[in-house]
């Protein structure tokens, strides 16, 4: 777990340094007012993609809330091989990915907006999201 923390921390530090560098470069090239316009446009594009995908995310969230967890196995080994656990695990990871993308789009900056948009594209294109079926009941 500690190794993952340091990898995430290093990635965030690199993104922050890239954001400052890109901002300084764009201020020099475009000026402050045009850069603010770029921020507004990239954030608006991000919000457009969030708006388009919100219904699928809401449906996924409702399905997760309404899932009867008492029918899932108690034993860890059985749980890892249960197709329902695997399916809903993928759904949960997709929802988390979507929320991280939204957070990155909300943060002002060109680099964070670009990362958020790439995450949204990959989230929207993932097979779990594309083939999401709220009535899915795998055969055991």
Could you explain the architecture of this structure?
This protein is an all-alpha fold. It has one domain (2-130). 81% of the residues lie in helices and 0% in strands. It has six helices and no strands. It has helices at 2-30, 32-66, 76-81, 83-106, 110-125, 127-130. Helix 2 (32-66) runs antiparallel to helix 4 (83-106), helix 2 runs parallel beside helix 5 and helix 4 runs antiparallel to helix 5.
Major beta-sheet overview = none
* Rg, Å, rounded: 19 Å
Q: N-to-C terminal Cα separation, in Å? A: 32 Å
Coarse morphology? elongated
Mean pLDDT: 77
> How many strands in all?
0
Contiguous uncertain segments of 5+ residues: none
* Global structural class: mainly alpha
Counted by DSSP, the helix tally is 6
Helix content: over 70%
* Beta-strand content estimate: under 5%
What is the H/E string? HHHHHH
In total, the number of domains comes to: 1
Question: What oligomerization state is this entry in?
Answer: single chain
Give the topology, please:
Blueprint: H1 2-30, H2 32-66, H3 76-81, H4 83-106, H5 110-125, H6 127-130
Helix pairs in contact: 1-2, 2-4, 2-5, 4-5
Keywords for this structure?
mainly alpha; 0% strand; 81% helix; 140 residues
In brief:
This protein has one domain (2-130). It is 81% helix and 0% strand.
């Amino acid at each position: 777990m500690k190794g993952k923390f340091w990898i995430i921390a290093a990635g965030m530090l690199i993104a922050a340094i890239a954001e400052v560098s890109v901002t300084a470069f764009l201020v020099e090239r475009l000026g402050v007012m045009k850069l603010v316009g770029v921020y507004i446009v990239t954030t608006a594009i991000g919000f457009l993609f969030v708006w388009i995908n919100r219904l699928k995310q809401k449906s996924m969230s409702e399905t997760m809330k309404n899932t009867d967890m008492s029918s899932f196995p108690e034993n860890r080994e059985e749980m890892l091989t249960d197709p329902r656990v695997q399916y809903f695990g993928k759904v949960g990871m997709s929802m988390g990915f979507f929320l991280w993308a939204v957070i990155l789009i909300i943060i002002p900056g060109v680099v964070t907006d670009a990362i958020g948009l790439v995450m949204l594209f990959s989230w929207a294109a993932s097979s779990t999201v594309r083939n999401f079926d709220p009535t899915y009941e795998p055969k055991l």
